[in-house]
């Protein structure tokens, strides 16, 4: 089985999401506003919120969620250790399937770190 190219996966998903946003502009606009308002710093900082979203993506078994929220967590300064602890919480809450998706989440995070390192 081939290793997932998370960068290409994210690029492809972004293209598909752009097509969907064009097809349903009002709901997509509302979702975008919800995402922006939710991730904005408040009582919790944006990094913590993205790590929470990553944990939920793991337990929901959502590949796209892993890609977008691992990338965003990195953007907000999440360390590999913080991602690992997030994966551990998801494993605790989600059991065996979260172990598999946790491994995928770590692979995504590492791919974006490598991309930033150039």
Automatic annotation (TrEMBL):
Residues 25-106 form the Carboxymuconolactone decarboxylase-like domain. Pfam families: CMD. One of its GO terms (molecular function) is peroxiredoxin activity. InterPro entries: AhpD-like (IPR029032), AhpD_core (IPR004675), CMD-like (IPR003779). This is Carboxymuconolactone decarboxylase family protein. The lineage of its organism: Bacteria, Pseudomonadati, Pseudomonadota, Alphaproteobacteria, Hyphomicrobiales.
């Amino acid at each position: 089985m081939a290793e997932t190219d998370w960068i290409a996966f994210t690029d492809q998903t972004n293209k598909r999401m752009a097509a969907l946003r064009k097809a349903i502009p009002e709901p997509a606009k509302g979702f975008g506003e919800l995402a922006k308002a939710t991730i904005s710093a408040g009582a919790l900082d944006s990094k913590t919120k993205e790590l929470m979203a990553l944990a939920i993506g793991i337990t929901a078994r959502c590949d796209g969620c892993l890609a977008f929220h691992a990338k965003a967590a990195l953007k907000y300064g999440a360390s590999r250790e913080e991602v690992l602890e997030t994966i551990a919480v998801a494993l605790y809450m989600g059991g065996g399937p979260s172990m598999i998706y946790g491994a995928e989440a770590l692979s995504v995070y590492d791919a974006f770190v490598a991309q930033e390192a150039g």
